[in-house]
Write a structure and sequence with these properties.
single chain; alpha/beta
């Protein structure tokens, strides 16, 4: 892993999970994808995660065969931006599947210049924890790994504390994204990292408690003294929309937490963000419309032409459009529509 990228990962970064841009024929819209990536970079992100759940796992199916193309497109834009700006951008590639598939995808990501892989446990509930630890070791031998606690509602499973302790013992695990959507399970991950004795960054993926995670110091007493850890950053599908404003509140909340000057207004902000996320991620439909909901926000802003997914059955749930409209009207200061309009105007004029 590049040293400057590793340092940024440990310091804590703002990393959106990248959606997939398609045209009306559900074909890959490369120009639109590149424009969306440039929006994220202009908005001030610290990295981008590609080929993850938000990018649609169907990109791996033979009839689409988009995995390499999507990863290459994202890496190309990030590398170009780094060369032009001098900023380091964390390049994260999602990998999934059984051990052989995950290893092959990690090799692909490595060849394309990615810094680390987000290793999904999705669809592997039939595997034992020991088998999944061995899978992580195999992938970590290829390139740095971001562990992933994925909530059961979207294909994840429950893990023991001992599992996370085992993951934290793996040399090339550099971070863990906790998207358990459960405070008890989140504490398991924080505790495992805190007692690992290793430099492992904790990233929030808990879309229902983004701000709360960024404000929380986890503290554990032990015979060796108090072990403390914070969420230093986030890797989130929620951050794929209203990104410019989200970057601002990320830096504000993290700075306030570090200084110990959090306010009642910060707690109110946390609840507002959670409410908006509930609409985007379709909590009333048990997350069935989570990807389409992200697409709908981007469509409204002009960053996507439609909400098409590779799976034609994947769309907004009944009532989700109205919920998105509600939070748009209720929290106007959280959107970045003005920034997007300015960005798109610059794109059109080449400024």
């Amino acid at each position: 892993m590049r040293k400057n990228a590793y340092d940024l990962m440990q310091r804590g970064g703002f990393i959106p999970a990248m959606p997939l841009v398609l045209d009306e024929n559900r074909q890959f819209d490369e120009a639109g994808q590149r424009r969306l990536i440039r929006y994220y970079l202009a908005a001030g992100v610290d990295g981008i995660a590609a080929a993850v759940h938000t990018t649609q796992f169907e990109i791996r199916l033979p009839q689409h065969n988009l995995l390499e193309k999507v990863l290459r497109t994202a890496a190309d834009e990030m590398i170009r931006y780094e060369q032009e700006s001098g900023r380091t951008i964390l390049r994260i590639a999602g990998v999934c599947g059984d051990e052989a598939q995950a290893a092959a995808e990690a090799e692909l990501a490595k060849s394309l210049g990615y810094d680390a892989v987000l290793l999904s446990p999705g669809g592997l509930s039939h595997k034992t924890e020991e088998e999944l630890i061995h899978r992580t070791q195999t992938v970590a031998a290829i390139m740095p790994v971001v562990g992933f606690y994925l909530q059961p509602a979207v294909g994840g499973r429950l893990f023991s504390y001992e599992y996370w302790a085992g993951i934290c013992a793996i040399e090339n695990v550099v971070a863990i994204k906790c998207a358990a959507f459960n405070r008890y399970l989140t504490i398991d991950v924080a505790r495992a990292i805190a007692f690992s004795g290793r430099e492992i960054a904790l990233y929030t993926g808990n879309d229902d408690s983004i701000a709360a995670d960024l404000m929380t110091k986890f503290s554990f007493a032990s015979p060796d003294g108090v072990k403390e850890i914070r969420c230093v950053g986030g890797l989130l599908g929620h951050w794929a929309v209203w990104t410019h404003r989200a970057v601002a509140y990320f830096h504000h909340l993290r700075s306030a937490a570090e200084k110990g000057v959090l306010s009642a207004e910060d707690m109110t902000l946390a609840a507002r963000i959670t409410d908006a996320n509930g609409a985007f991620f379709d909590i009333r439909g048990n997350f069935a419309g989570c990807i389409a909901g992200i697409h709908e926000v981007l469509r409204r802003q002009g960053l996507m032409k439609g909400i098409w997914c590779l799976n034609p059955d994947e769309t907004l749930s009944p009532g989700q459009m109205e919920e998105i409209e509600r939070v748009y009207q209720m929290y106007p200061d959280l959107n970045d529509d003005a920034f997007v309009r300015e960005f798109l105007q610059k794109e059109q004029t080449g400024a």
